[in-house]
Amino acid sequence: MDVLFGGLADAVRLLLSGDEDSWSIIALTLRVSLTATAIALLLGLPLGAAVAVARFPGRRILLAAANTGMGMPPVVVGLFVTVLLWRSGPLGGLGLLYTPTAMVIAQGAIATPIVVALVAAALQQVDPDFRVQMQALGATPVRALAALLGEARLPLLAGAMAAFGAVVSEVGAAQMVGGNLAGQTRVLTTAAVLATSRGQFSLAIAFGLILLLIAFGVNLSLTLIQQRQAVTR
Amino acid sequence: MSAGIGCRDLRVHAGGRELLSVPELHVSSGRTLAVLGPNGAGKSTLLRALGLLSSHRVSGEILLDGRPATRSLMRHALVAVLQRPILRRGTVAANVISGLRFRGVSRREAQARAWPWIEALGLASLAGRDARSLSIGEAQRVSITRALAVGPKVLLLDEPFSGLDSTTRADLLADLRAALTGQPTATILVTHDRQEALALAEDTALLIKGRIRQHGSTAEVLDHPGDADTARLLGFTNLLPPALTGRTHTLVARPEHTRLVLGPSDDSAEVIGTLRRTVALGVATRVDVDTAAGPLTCLHPGDLLATELPPAGSSVRVRIRHARPLTEMSLATPS
């Protein structure tokens, strides 16, 4: 119990002390995970919408791939991204390995299938004739699609939360492609792993609690938006 | 150039199969056409093709006010009400104005234009309600009000009354009829219900297996089936071939015009058969009789006591009180 309370005390101390290292880890965690989530939304929203409403060859294969991707171990994604960005790999010339950009790429690859699968599921829950009815009321195809997205906004926000939750909490890919370099690519999960391996349990718990706090904060914001929309009808 | 909606040589294909073929159809502004047909006849397919809303392969020409319709022209002219009321999240009032909003009308103006329709269709007390909390009947009322509020040139109604209880249906039917009267709207109602066609439409087309078999004024079409399929669709379920009646044409009759002869009679026009079963239906008693030319159904008013009817297997005589000869009607568009 001492370790746990010590960890709690350390977490509060770290947050209040203004320790530069800790704050840079927190800031990098937020930057990498939010950027990865944003990229996943940018890619996943149109892809998921296409899978849900369009008919094209390979649609079901794409959906099955996205569903599989939802359960993809981050360490496997990390491995592929590492191979791609390795000095002698296809994208080695870009020199991105062990940079925050590499972490964003890896986390984006983790989050995109989640967004695609959840967007497709969210849109397919709406009546299949929804867009036809909107167009039959005078909506252009684009406005009808926008109305469909609006109709499914609650599960869509849930998809965004799931994507962020998956990337902010993963450690395998961040460790492999980022290398956990102090001051450069160290994020809360990799910092917690390092502290644990060194026997600094209080510090590890502190990082873990801060991670939980961040995840809770972001999801609380999205939940408040989601539920406000659900109630103010 | 005649105002309204129509088509020429309209064909719809799906999966290598022709679902629909309509050489010509026109509904003038201010008139309502009922497209009556059994399930799977292609009614919704026709409606969606006319509204340029079909996901199937459509060929031929859709005409709007006599000119070939483009998607843009159709989008401005048309509103459709689908079989299931599909409402958006939000209040009833927000749903009713959504058609106007899609057309670029400001919220304030849309509310002003929609309000008379909300009152006319009896939705004023529900205006602030969450659309998701409505019953199916209320939701369909909102869906119809949303369509009328736009003041469309063309209104397509895809079985909007199916799934409603009889009281709700009768009320909504009357309200819709009142709302459409005097409006310069070309309305097409797709239905399998003759009463809906009678209540709403001046003209009726009978659609069977993707083809229009008859087209004319509603009163005429509903009472003059041209072939066995249309006879069945129109409730003339008793077919009496010449061999049975001695007439030159096949006769058709409704069950309510077909009765068992329970007393002595020497009427030579009666048909002989064997009583198969009797079913008490509360307000009527149904009697099924097998004849040499096929089954006949008799419908006697009231709950006939079993003792009044002979037992199953008895030889019985059936009298047809009103029968119509099957005559091919013209497919010409009514004036």
TrEMBL record, chain A:
GO BP annotations listed: transmembrane transport
Keyword field: Membrane, Transmembrane, Transmembrane helix, Transport
Keyword 4Fe-4S: no
Main location: membrane
Compartments where found: Cell membrane; Membrane
TM ranges: 23-54, 61-86, 98-123, 144-168, 203-225
A Pfam family per the record: BPD_transp_1
PANTHER family for this protein: PERMEASE COMPONENT OF TUNGSTATE ABC TRANSPORTER
Protein name in the entry: Tungstate transporter permease
TrEMBL record, chain B:
Gene3D superfamilies cross-referenced by the UniProt entry: P-loop containing nucleotide triphosphate hydrolases (3.40.50.300)
Signal peptide segment: none
Presence of the UniProt keyword Manganese in the record: no
Location of the ABC transporter domain: 5-234
Lipoprotein as UniProt keyword: no
InterPro entries per record: AAA+_ATPase (IPR003593), ABC_SmlMolc_Importer (IPR050093), ABC_transporter-like_ATP-bd (IPR003439), Mo/tungstate-bd_C_term_dom (IPR008995), P-loop_NTPase (IPR027417)
Record keywords: ATP-binding, Nucleotide-binding, Transport
GO molecular function terms listed in the Swiss-Prot or TrEMBL record: ATP binding; ATP hydrolysis activity
Protein name stated in the entry: ABC transporter domain-containing protein
Organism the protein comes from: Nonomuraea aridisoli
